[in-house]
Protein 1
Amino acid sequence: MTALQRFDLQGRVILLTGGAGLYGRGLARDLAETGARLIIAARSVEKLEAVAAEERNRGLDVTAMALDQGDEASVMALKNHIVADYGQLDGLVNNAVARPMKGANGSVEQWEESMRVNATGIMLMHRHLGKMMAERGSGSIVNIGSIQGMIGPSYELYTGTTMGDMPPDYFFHKGGMVNLTRFYAALFGPQNVRVNCLAPGGFFNNQPEPFLTRYAEHTMLGRMADPTDLGGSVIFLLSDASRYITGVNLPVDGGYTAK
């Protein structure tokens, strides 16, 4: 096998949760272009169906399925659907996230909903889909975290804007994802299933100019991420090119956390 062939995902069955959002749409495009048999799954199936149709129109293999990852019955139904339609799962990208809390004073009910989807739900995805790969004896899980799971909030970036009321739940569950990654890397390692985490930095989304300028100054590369910046790292971690890497949290942040 050549060096480039070790990056090949051709024909592999890959599940990407989310797929229509800020991170997910770019990941769906990039993973589909590898030749993988891509499944995208989330609660908003109508949005995912539109994404899948766009990719199929390009001749790529993308299927949308329903998933509420905070509901164990929904996770099990998705697993059974994959078994029936594909017979296997080679890779899982945990990208879906709920954002019910909008600021520091969000309600307890919003916090609890966030934990249902973003904490309990991520555990359920590992328990059922990760176990499915472990029973087969191979696979790779990539968790999409955030630099906000590694650092505290930088309120100074938001001065003079209407942004900046950051919710505590996001910092909590993205921080927890890092160590949950290590837990499942240890649990599934003997069955040849690798588990890693990516910690993206901020994505450009037409934020106010003062924020953009300050954020760029915080990074070594002088810019925010765009939708093409995550796919390469995800493909690497799903592929045989990273076959001796597990339990890692990889910042993809333009040097934000290294500065």
Protein 2
Amino acid sequence: MPRRAKAEERARVAAILQALHGARPEPRVELDHDSPFQLLIATILSAQCTDERVNKVTPALFRAYPDAAALARASLPGLEKLIRSTGFFRAKARSIKTCSQALIERHRGEVPRTMEEMTRLPGVGRKTANVVLGAGYRIASGIVVDTHMARVARRLRLTKNTDPVKIERDLMALIPETEWIFFSIAMILHGRYVCQARLPRCGACPLRPHCPSRDLEAKRS
């Protein structure tokens, strides 16, 4: 059972959300895509890889294989060659191919719109499903927890957990459902560019007044 936030905690969360909206009014996922299907494939490729690198790979990939049917028929060596620079390319090629086959067999080539159906696809966990449902379909299914989200949420003391499932549970109990999609994207971008792992830019952080870990930048200098 999710815990119920106290009034003081709710007020701090509201202030954090307000600051995030002020800093990033319309945050966007940085994986280039023209459809939920392209976002799904790009998100699979982004594991242990930067969005910038994925964006260099996907134009050629989608020219060669424009839809699920084409990827389902693709040869693994051909896929591996196109995605090699994203790392773990053999495992990713298998995931992309089997996921595309499942889309054809179960969903007529369309990306499903529920968490249950998404996470039944090969290679798709909650994080990937939340990215696609939120940014692809604007469906608030949960909160995306990647390394950036986990780090910033712990620094803000929105969670004490390290397990992504438990972190998501804690955040979903604190963040209004209407903010889940915005919060997911804005917090990840905040972690990527401001609240970085090694050199957090606390002096430039719009969340600094609400952050119990503020001034990490000064403490580490």
Protein 3
Amino acid sequence: MSKYKLLAVDMDGTLLNSQKKITPRTVAALAELAGRGVYVVTSTGRGRAEINDYPEVIKLMHYGILNSGGLLFDFVRDEPIAIHGVDEPTILKLIDFGLEERAMIHLLGVHKSLARESDIQNMAAFDMAVYHDMFNRVCERCDDFKGYVRAHPGEVIKVNLYHRDTASRDRNLARMRKMNLSISFAEAYNLEASPANITKASGLVELCDHLKIDIAEAVAIGDAHNDKEVLQAAGLGVAMGNASDEIKQLADFVTLDNDHDGVAAAIERLF
């Protein structure tokens, strides 16, 4: 019998294959694990609105670490457990940075996801075409981000900036590093801004405390830069076969890639 009591699994590049689908084998592995009483938890940069396309998985998960640790969510009760939002002056600066670089600005709250209509219809310019259908369906359109932020204090948990190229992203990265933020990225040209010390790892610590589970009893699986801390914090960190070399090197072991049921293979080996 496995000593592990919780599985925290990333979505994009991990649970989802290249077509943004979850295979039947992976769903079956998650269901079997949940049926044995193991907590199956999503650990994702996505917000609540961005995971509604996967009801077959959400129904297996009592809890979610969303918005890169900024939101702990109880799916059964459909309510947040903990919220860690970005402060208003910081959000306004990030909006300015996005506008200056002609980036796609994406604000995430507890239930809402906001972006400009013009950006959603031009997501290929930000190397985000694969997400167009989802954004088109779930995002609330917003052209006045600053007005929204001022009218909804405390509601923005994370700010994503999707850039047009590496140079543009790196200019904003240099600006953001001077601020009190947790910065990560999961796509080619994006930057994810959360409050200082808020990461998927802090979310896992907080959730384990809530469930009275030792973090040594948790397994985390991921593939990207924004999974780095959680793979190191968990009792065992698993890198996907499609992960970057940096992520593979810090993981305890590497499973198959996301187009070959890497999550299911890890579950079958560890649990």
